[in-house]
Amino acid sequence: xxxxxxxxxxxxxxxxxxxxxxxxxxxxxxxxxxxxxxxxxxxxxxxxxxxxxxxxxxxxxxxxxxxxxxxxxxxxxxxxxxxxxxxxxxxxxxxxxxxxxxxxxxxxxxxxxxxxxxxxxxxxxxxxxxxxxxxxxxxxxxxxxxxxxxxxxxxxxxxxxxxxxxxxxxxxxxxxxxxxxxxx
Length: 184
Description:
mainly beta; 2 helices; 8 strands; elongated
């Protein structure tokens, strides 16, 4: 009789509660606008890593690090001879702080809406025709928004598709990516 009571109490015991902490990452295409002094390629490989702490089942405080990649412009020899810059490279990164609001759509699918603030670092490297390098580093503070859809693969793992936007006028940056997250 004791064995039966012990087995019965184990069946009713709920699964271990999660701490409500999650981490994840996405990779995809980054788009940067208006960062070069003249038209340059603005699409590049980009990615994001993030982590958060759930405050309620649908609301979390979240921190992220977005790497928007590096854009480059190279002028031809005729323009360099006329005094133009030979090469220009711009690399952009952002640290984001905000909230993530999740709403269940249908079984195992949720939408994610993120709102917050981005602390952006832009590093510009200019190379003249005489191989003299100059640097122009800027730091910007801008609003940040994101949206995505998640599919719950297991209890703790989600597959993600998302779009993240750092809004800074004609110098706004975007990341369209896919990835995964795990909750603990």
